[in-house]
Amino acid sequence: MRSRPIIFSMYFSYVAHSGGVIDVARNVLAGFKAAGVTGYRVLEPSSSIHNSKLRTLLRFLCDMWLSVRFYFSPVVLLYPNYFCTPLPGARSRSVVVVHDIMFKHYPAYVSPAKRLILDLSYRIVQKRAHGVIFISKDSERDFIRTYGEPRRYTTIYNPVVLKGASPDTVRTVGPVDKPYAIANFHYYPHKNLEGLLRLFDQLHEAWPDLQLVFTGNKPPQFDELIRKSRTPEAICHLGFLPKEQVMAVVRDAAFFMSMSQFEGFNMSAAEAALLGKPLILSDLPVHRELFADCAQFVPLSTDEVDAPALVRFVQSHVAHAPAFAAAVAPEVAAAQYLTFVNQVAA
Q1: Contact at 8 Å (CB) between 93 and 73?
Q2: DSSP alpha helices (H): ranges in 96-230?
Q3: d(Cα 294, Cα 290) in Å, to the nearest integer?
Q4: pLDDT tens digits for 249-269?
Q5: Which end of the chain has a smaller Cβ tally under 10 Å, C or N?
Q6: What is the pLDDT of residues 93-146, one digit of tens each?
Q7: Is 184 helix (H, G, I), strand (E, B) or coil?
Q8: Buried b (16+ CB within 10 A) or exposed e, 303-329
Q9: d(CA 30, CA 87)
Q10: pTM confidence score
């Protein structure tokens, strides 16, 4: 039961065509549906607007307009991606999902204008938002260290939907007769492609049949980096795939690997772990928080690893449900969202 209707803003997807944040929002909505939640409204951006600058502007204007539009309405405005502008005296309540503050740790990866917008947005969230949802305890601690405690906050792990991962889904792409590691993510500089390729070179030396498969967007420097690697013939990039095929590729992989420099959650690693895959991950606090029972961790500061030991870990791994599995079930996450929304509404 809810004391106030929920207005679920998807306006941020004017500029987020793909990637983890929009996946999280869609998974939350899938959780609402799985949990039988009714009575909420989802506000979607217009599909007829294609100009990228206009879409970026509308992303902010539309979310700002919500505070005015629902000023006198006893509703909860749910913002899945950091930005809100609550107005003093409004009857509406704002709940904001904060994913991470990566730009504070790696400012070189974010333009000055975007850093300014992000910093201002998070200061507003900390002081004015009625409720804040963090996607991991590590993200919560990082935000509070930087900005201070919000009015009311909680941590709810991202819901994970494994669409297409069943044995009945026929995989039509990727290696057929050789074991492969999967590195499926949307490329951003902090994903540390260079470090991942260095690690794979060492793993391939210890396991000569091993292949490496990428999915998602392909950065401009990708082909040049592959040419510089010691194993270019063992690496392929499949590009964007339907979700069912991405999950099938993950399902059939020997393991998942990521050498990301920063994560708020790491949805791709969570999907792989839920499919029983062993993980080889960069040694980050959030990776240890979530994946301690199914991963081996590689320090970002090291160039040489014990590749044979990592290969033995992968080859001896027994598939099991990871410790976080219950918490990321979509209907469980949806129930936690509703509980928190009720607390904020009250």
Answers
A1: no
A2: 102-105, 112-128, 137-147, 193-206, 222-228
A3: 9
A4: 999 999 999 999 999 999 999
A5: N
A6: 999 999 999 999 999 999 999 999 999 999 999 999 999 999 999 999 999 999
A7: strand
A8: eebebeebbebbeebeeeebebeebbb
A9: 30
A10: 0.94
